[in-house]
Every structure is written in C-alpha cells, then in structure tokens.
Design brief:
Chitinase A, domain 3, alpha+beta, periplasm, SurA_N, globular, chaperone, single chain, 447 residues
C-alpha cells in the first residue's frame, strides 16, 4: 500500500535564496560508522532540563555573538520569499532553524579564517550586486531600502554570502585536492548513459527530514505542516534551505536530473507517478522526503520544449474594483483584435488601438513558460498570437510568436563533465562530515 500523500504546487519553484550552483543529489548523509551509545535502562534525570520556552534566540559561537536581531532579519528574508504568507506557528519553527543556520555560518567563516582564507568585502559586495539584480530586480540602493522596509537588511544577506564563499573556498583547499575519481568510474557512467538513451530523467527537488522510530510520528507531522504551507503559496526552495537535512539544502533542495534507478525505491515509485509541479511526501531511508517534480525529459534526446522563442507580449490590466461582468466586453475585444495579428510587424499597431503594453523578449525556452502555454507555443504558426492568458488580478496578455528555433542536437555528457559531477558528489559528502566535526568541537553558549 502506498503511504505517501500529494499536493499540487501552483507557485513558482524559483526563490530569492538560491545563491549557489546546483549540486548533485543526496538523500541521506553517508556518515562514517559510529559506536552505539551505552545508555543503561532504569536511569533517571538528576537535574531538571532547561525550559525551552525560556531560551532566547541568541547564542555565542566560539566567542562570536549571534543576536536576536540577526535571527529576526534572516527570518524576514524567509517571509519575503514566502510572499508574507508565513503563519505565526511557522515563525517559531523557522526561528529555531535559522539560529542553527547562523551558528553553522559562524563555524564556516571561523574555520576559513583559521585556515587563512579571506573573503573580502569587495567580493561580497560584487556577489550581492548580482543577487540584487537577479533575485530582487532592483539596484543595490533600492534593495537596501526594500529589505529594511520589510524588517531585514543587506547585512544579513551579505553574511550568508560571505559564509557560502568562505566555505566553498575552504572545501576547495582542504577537501577537493584529496578527492579521487578514477577513469574507470567515469567510463562506466558514460557507458551506462549510452545504454539508457531515450529513457526518462526527472528534475527533482527534495526536502529531507531524518527520523527515528521514537520521533517518526513527530517528524511526519512536521512534514505535513510544511506541505500545507507550500500548498498555501510558501516557497519550496525557502523551506528546503531552512529545514532539509540533505546536502542539497544550500541550493533549495534541487537534486538536478536523475534517473529512477538512481533513487531509493520509495522515491523512484513516487516520482514515476507524479505530474510536473506536484509535491509528494514519501518515506525515505532514515526519514521522510518531500519530493517535488520540477520537470522530466528523455535522456540524450532532443526535447522540443528546449526550442528557443522570440516573443512579443501585448498586455492590458483592469482598474481596481472592476467586476468580471464589466471586464467581459474588454476581454472579448482584446481577444478578437489580437487574433487578427499576422506577423509581429502588425502587433504594435493593434496594441496601440487597444492601449496595450508591449514587451519584446528573445531567447525564451518553451519549457520555461507556464504549462498551459507550452504546447500552444509548439503548435502555433510563426506570426500568430496565443489566446488571451491571465486573470482579473494580473491582467490579460497574448504572446505573438515572432520566431522559434529548434533545439540543437543533444550531445553526450563529456568525460570531464562526468568527472566533475562525481567529484562534486564526494566533496558534498566530505563537507557534511567536516561541518559535523566543527559542530562537535564548537563552544556554543545560548542566552
């Protein structure tokens, strides 16, 4: 009997917080074998445990202070990523996880400094400029004002950037040189790719929560709460960054492209039956995974959805308070007039008669469009427009197809590509162990 439950996603998978390149998939930590704990039966606590309700969300990590303001400002970033739809009961859970993340960031920065690895303010600022432009669509100055107005600050985002740059450089120096991948391993994978040509690959996202028999019920209940928040518009990527215990948490849970045989059986069974943008909670080795199907494709074959489009968009919006009945004639006229378009050269003139805004876009992949538009764009003759698309809230628009370039023939993953991917997988595993050791050796005082 299947024990997973499903929720279809409506919101976009992209998120504000994805700052690092995607790494390869890992379902659970392959930690080194450890001795069992010797806990005698019949013992009793000799002192009262500290009251978790009294502990404040501040800590001192090897002498470095993390304040409540630090936690508040990082939490505000999560609220922004979730479009202000984070309920009060989720705030407390996020605060606890954010504090742990800030502690880990402190350990990463401290370890890099101890190894004489420096990340300059100029480097952080340069990286932040790209984040401001790509994720916030604002200048640095405007991003500063925006974050401040939402209860956050550029300082907390820059701290996160510094930690990630510091950690990546530390791994490049202390871990990567000692990672070995043989030519035979690479050749075996390339041969396997060749034999699986035409089979299906899945682009998956994952939020992995570890569980033991003792806390399984609590962990599964927590997974359901996360699913409910994502269903209500929460960011899958933001939740993955804060709660996932897999190595892919840093990239918003992105597992990349995988084949079913690369997954544990329970995850493979679920993925095979999922639809795009669907999320499934399914038991996984050592816990539970919230699995998101982002996309699927055929291995080493050309996918028409990789075709590149040149589009012209015509859009109109509706005044506040206008009803659907009042908008009906406007939509009807917009639809009739835009269907008269014959070539992008006539679109601008028709747009003027409709008082519509016009936007030209090149280099758009079919697969990057909303699902309802993808097949339409594959079938639409060049020079014609789509049916109207949109809503009363967002306005309606049509897209005129000015050009469509077929995707280039798929090339086999190169030897160097496979080598690099295997190295990254092993670096990720070693990185988890490295951070585990830093946590064990740290002196952390909670206030």
């Amino acid at each position: 009997m299947k024990t997973f439950f499903r929720i279809a996603l409506v919101s976009s998978v992209t998120a504000v917080m994805a700052l690092t390149p995607a790494s390869s998939q890992t379902v659970a930590d392959d930690a080194a074998p450890q001795q069992a704990l010797d806990i005698p039966e019949g013992g009793q606590l000799l002192a009262k445990p500290s009251d978790p309700n009294v502990r404040k969300a501040t800590a001192i990590v090897n002498g470095e202070i993390i304040t409540g303001t630090d936690v508040d400002q990082r939490l505000a970033l999560i609220v922004i990523a979730n479009e202000n739809q984070l309920p009060p009961e989720e705030m407390a859970r996020f605060r606890t996880q954010i504090l742990q993340n800030l502690i880990d960031e402190s350990l990463q920065i401290q370890e890099a400094a101890a190894n004489e690895i420096e990340v300059t303010d100029a480097e952080v600022n340069q990286y932040f400029e790209r984040v401001a432009e790509q994720n916030f669509k604002r200048s640095v100055a405007d991003t500063d004002k925006y974050l401040t107005s939402r209860g956050s600050s550029i300082a907390t985002l820059k701290r996160q950037i510094k930690a990630e740059l510091s950690w990546n450089r530390l791994l490049s120096r202390n871990v990567r040189p000692f990672i070995n991948v043989s030519d035979d391993e690479v050749n075996a994978i390339i041969e396997r790719i060749n034999t699986t040509k035409g089979t299906t690959e899945y682009r998956l996202g994952e939020i992995y929560l570890s569980a033991t028999p003792e806390n399984q019920e609590q962990v599964f209940a927590n997974a359901r709460k996360i699913l409910e928040q994502i269903q209500q518009g929460g960011s899958f990527t933001a939740y993955a960054r804060q709660f996932s215990e897999a190595s892919t948490a840093a990239v918003g849970g992105d597992l990349g492209w995988v084949r079913l045989e690369q997954l544990p059986q329970s995850l493979a069974t679920a993925a095979a039956e999922m639809s795009n943008n669907e999320i499934v909670a399914v038991p996984a080795p050592g816990g539970i995974s919230l699995l998101l199907l982002i996309d699927r494709r055929q291995v080493a074959t050309t996918d028409p959805r990789d075709s590149m489009l040149s589009l012209k968009q015509l859009a109109i919006s509706f005044p506040a308070g206008m009803t659907e009945a009042q908008a009906g004639p406007v939509v009807k006229r917009f639809s009739e007039e835009t269907q008269k378009i014959r070539g992008c050269g006539t679109a601008d003139e028709i747009a003027r008669t409709l008082s519509a805004d016009v936007v030209n876009r090149d280099g758009i992949k079919v697969r990057d469009l909303p699902g309802p538009l993808q097949q339409i764009m594959l079938d639409l003759p060049v020079g014609q427009s789509t049916p109207p698309y949109g809503s009363m809230q967002d306005g309606i628009r049509v897209f005129v197809l000015c050009g469509r370039d077929a995707p280039e023939a798929t090339t086999q993953e190169s030897f160097d590509d496979v080598m690099s991917r295997l190295e990254d997988e092993r670096i990720n595993k070693r990185a988890r162990l490295y951070l585990r050791d830093l946590r064990r050796d740290a002196i952390v005082e909670y206030n």
